[in-house]
C-alpha cells in the first residue's frame, strides 16, 4: 500500500487482482482508500478520485458531524441491541456463574459476579452475543448453500471494524462479524448470501451483483442498512 494526495486529501492506494476500482471512506476520521486493479496506474487512480471528490467530501463531513456514541460502561439503563431490537441493560450482581437473559422483550438481564468491572461485564455480554450468533448460523448457512448450490468448508465469527463478512475463496472459509448478532436475521442472511456468492464469483462485478439479485432481490436494501450502521461508505466503478 502507498499513498497519493488529491486536493489535500490523503488516499491509501492498494493494488489487488480485481477488475474494477473501489473507493471507500472509513469512520471515524473519514480515511479514504482506493483498491485498484494491478494494471491501473496512479494517474488513473488520481483521475478516478478527482471525479469522486464531492462524494468523498460528503462522506467525510458526515463522519465529522455525526453524534459519537458514548463509551459503553455496561451498566443498568444502557441501550443494547439484539437481533435488530433495542433493549435496556439491567445489571444484576450475584455470587453464581455469569449469564445473560432476555426478559419481557424489553430488558437484557446481565448477571455478573459482585465486584465485576466494566471489562468483565463487557466480556460476559460479548460472549453471549457470540453464542447466540453461532446458534443461528448453521441453519441459515445450510438453507442458502442449497439455494445457491455451493458449499463452505468452514465458518467463523470474529469482531471486524470495517466489514460485515469476508470469504477466503480457495479455502472456502467464511468469516462473519460478531456485530451481526445485534442486527436482524434478514441482515445476517444477506451477509451469508453475499459471502457464499463469492464462491461463484470472486469479484464485486456485474455478474456478482446479478447473482445476488437472483438469490436475494432485496439485497441492496440490506446492504445500505448495514453500511449505514457500520458507518462504512463505498463507491465501486
In short:
By secondary structure, this protein is an alpha/beta fold.
Residue fraction in strands: 25-35%
What is the tally of helical segments? 6
Shape: globular
Largest sheet: 5 strands, mixed
The low-pLDDT segments are 232-237
- What's the rounded overall pLDDT mean? 91
- Overall structural class, as computed from helix and strand content, comes to alpha/beta
DSSP summary, beta strand count: 12
- Widest sheet: strand order? 1-2-4-3-12
How much helix, percentage-wise, in residues?
Answer: 25-40%
What is the H/E string?
EEEEHHEEEEHEEEHHHE
Q: How far apart are the first and last residues' alpha carbons, in Å?
A: 20 Å
Calculate Rg over CA atoms: 20 Å
Outline the secondary-structure elements.
Layout: E1 2-6, E2 9-16, E3 22-26, E4 31-37, H1 42-51, H2 53-65, E5 79-82, E6 85-94, E7 99-103, E8 107-113, H3 118-148, E9 154-158, E10 165-168, E11 173-177, H4 185-197, H5 206-215, H6 219-230, E12 233-236
Parallel strand pairs: 2-4, 6-8, 9-11
Antiparallel strand pairs: 1-2, 3-4, 3-12, 5-6, 7-8, 10-11
Question: Please, could you describe this protein's structure?
Answer:
The protein is 38% helix and 29% strand. With 237 residues, it is an alpha/beta fold. Strands 1-2-4-3-12 form a five-stranded mixed beta sheet, with helices on one face. It has a four-stranded mixed beta sheet with strand order 5-6-8-7, covered by helices on one side. Strands 9-11-10 form a three-stranded mixed beta sheet, covered by helices on one side. Helix 3 crosses helix 4. The longest helix has 31 residues, at 118-148. Mean pLDDT is 91; it is low at 232-237.
Amino acid at each position: 500500500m502507498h499513498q497519493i494526495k488529491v486536493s489535500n486529501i490523503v488516499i491509501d492506494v492498494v493494488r489487488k487482482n480485481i477488475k474494477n476500482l473501489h473507493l471507500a471512506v472509513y469512520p471515524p476520521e473519514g480515511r479514504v482508500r482506493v483498491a485498484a486493479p494491478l494494471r491501473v496506474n496512479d494517474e488513473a487512480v488520481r483521475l478516478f478520485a478527482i471525479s469522486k471528490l464531492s462524494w468523498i467530501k460528503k462522506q467525510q463531513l458526515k463522519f465529522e458531524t455525526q453524534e459519537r456514541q458514548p463509551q459503553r460502561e455496561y451498566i443498568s439503563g444502557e441501550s443494547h441491541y439484539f437481533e435488530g431490537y433495542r433493549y435496556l441493560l439491567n445489571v444484576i450482581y450475584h455470587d453464581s456463574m455469569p449469564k445473560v437473559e432476555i426478559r419481557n422483550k424489553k430488558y437484557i438481564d446481565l448477571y455478573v459476579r459482585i465486584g465485576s468491572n466494566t471489562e468483565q461485564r463487557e466480556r460476559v455480554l460479548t460472549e453471549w452475543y457470540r453464542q447466540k450468533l453461532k446458534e443461528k448460523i448453521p441453519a441459515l448457512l445450510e438453507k442458502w448453500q442449497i439455494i445457491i448450490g455451493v458449499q463452505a468448508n468452514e465458518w467463523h465469527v470474529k469482531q471486524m471494524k470495517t466489514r460485515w463478512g469476508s470469504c477466503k475463496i480457495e479455502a472456502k472459509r467464511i468469516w462473519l462479524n460478531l456485530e451481526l448478532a445485534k442486527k436482524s436475521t434478514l441482515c445476517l442472511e444477506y451477509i451469508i448470501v453475499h459471502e457464499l456468492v463469492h464462491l461463484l464469483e470472486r469479484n464485486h462485478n456485474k455478474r456478482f451483483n446479478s447473482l445476488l439479485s437472483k438469490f436475494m432481490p432485496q439485497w441492496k436494501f440490506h446492504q445500505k442498512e448495514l453500511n449505514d450502521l457500520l458507518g462504512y461508505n463505498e463507491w465501486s466503478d
